[in-house]
TrEMBL record:
<dbReference type="GO" id="GO:0005789">
    <property type="term" value="C:endoplasmic reticulum membrane"/>
</dbReference>
<comment type="similarity">
    <text>Belongs to the glycosyltransferase group 1 family. Glycosyltransferase 4 subfamily.</text>
</comment>
<dbReference type="InterPro" id="IPR001296">
    <property type="entry name" value="Glyco_trans_1"/>
</dbReference>
<keyword id="KW-1133">Transmembrane helix</keyword>
<dbReference type="InterPro" id="IPR028098">
    <property type="entry name" value="Glyco_trans_4-like_N"/>
</dbReference>
<dbReference type="InterPro" id="IPR027054">
    <property type="entry name" value="ALG2"/>
</dbReference>
<keyword id="KW-0256">Endoplasmic reticulum</keyword>
<dbReference type="Pfam" id="PF00534">
    <property type="entry name" value="Glycos_transf_1"/>
</dbReference>
<dbReference type="Pfam" id="PF13439">
    <property type="entry name" value="Glyco_transf_4"/>
</dbReference>
<comment type="pathway">
    <text>Protein modification; protein glycosylation.</text>
</comment>
<keyword id="KW-0808">Transferase</keyword>
<comment type="function">
    <text>Mannosylates Man(2)GlcNAc(2)-dolichol diphosphate and Man(1)GlcNAc(2)-dolichol diphosphate to form Man(3)GlcNAc(2)-dolichol diphosphate.</text>
</comment>
<feature type="domain" description="Glycosyl transferase family 1">
    <location>
        <begin position="218"/>
        <end position="392"/>
    </location>
</feature>
<keyword id="KW-0812">Transmembrane</keyword>
<dbReference type="GO" id="GO:0102704">
    <property type="term" value="F:GDP-Man:Man(2)GlcNAc(2)-PP-Dol alpha-1,6-mannosyltransferase activity"/>
</dbReference>
<protein>
    <recommendedName>
        <fullName>Alpha-1,3/1,6-mannosyltransferase ALG2</fullName>
        <ecNumber>2.4.1.132</ecNumber>
        <ecNumber>2.4.1.257</ecNumber>
    </recommendedName>
</protein>
<feature type="domain" description="Glycosyltransferase subfamily 4-like N-terminal">
    <location>
        <begin position="26"/>
        <end position="197"/>
    </location>
</feature>
Amino acid sequence: MGERQGTDRNADAGPSVLFLHPDLGVGGAERLVLDAALALRARGCRVTIWTAHYDPGHCFAESRELPVRCAGDWLPRTLGWGGRGAAVCAYVRMVFLALYVLFLADEEFDVVVCDQVSACIPVFKLARRRKKILFYCHFPDLLLTKRDSFLKQLYRAPIDWIEEYTTGMADCILVNSQFTAAIFKETFKSLSHRDPDVLYPSLNVTSFDSAVPEKLDDLVPEGKEFLFLSINRYERKKNLKLALEALVQLRARLTSQDWERVHLIMAGGYDERVQENVEHYRELKKMVQQSDLGQYVTFLRSFSDKQKISLLHGCTCVLYTPSHEHFGIVPLEAMYMQCPVIAVNSGGPLESIVHSITGFLCEPDPVHFSEAIEKFIREPSLKATMGLAGRARVVEKFSSEAFTEQLYQCVTKLLT
């Protein structure tokens, strides 16, 4: 039950920090958890990650540099019926994981860092030696689901209450953007006295700097000069269809000669265990067929870090389609690779992208997106000028050094 990966190379160093995360996959939350763990280890902390599910083949490569331990993967992820009951199952899995760590794992730690599911926090209050708890709120979970029936409202009511109450039990609360901080205050009324600190995600630029980009011949048809890239999980809330709809609008705006030089790669996190990933991928494929875009779109599922870096290096622009995104790590990755970003003008991208300088912020509709895409075709030099500005912005505002220092100060402050 207690699967172990990696070794702790700082066994006798500084404070001991235990990370608790539901499912160590390839999403933005997982990227932040790994970056946080690596940052604290670099500052001399002893770090361990515990999770309910870990597949080294479906996770960021850096996870293999850290001690990752797993318990509770035998518990169900859903209650069936089309993926229903996922929230309850996530709570049960995290509470079990916390109980396992506290009473069966023989772990010594000073600070717990948990994210996504706060229901595990009360468990650590049971420890004989009080543990300090830091909770990283990516976004209030109660806002991520619809309540379109009385039964759903009834089902969510206790879950929503538990989320708010247990979040308030954390000794320190961090959020990923000013946007999320504002939503946190509006949503959790009983926590109006708490002011969460903003810790912007950063990039672990080492992997970007050391990677040698590969050729994209196997992904991009010959003769394609303008390569556009969408990177996001295959989830409906990511609004991936906006990229395809914008492509349809773009076709009407270009000459046939220019249109033949355009190609879109839809790259996204994909997990066969997640029903929505499977369904939405099929929906997007069907949409491509119906729009006669087959020769102009390539789908790439669960790509490697090296493939991602190669795509960012070779593409003209990244299309970032989610609305009200909590922060969004993809725009940072793109800008660091000197690749401009076209994103929806809401949420986190308002804090990372500078309109008309490092990319374009647009209304979430196909016409506005296609107009922004067209600019890169009419003015190819935009990629270089915006790319340089984007990299400078990431280095200045979202450096790993600033992230590491702020996180380390939060942890040490808890222990004083």
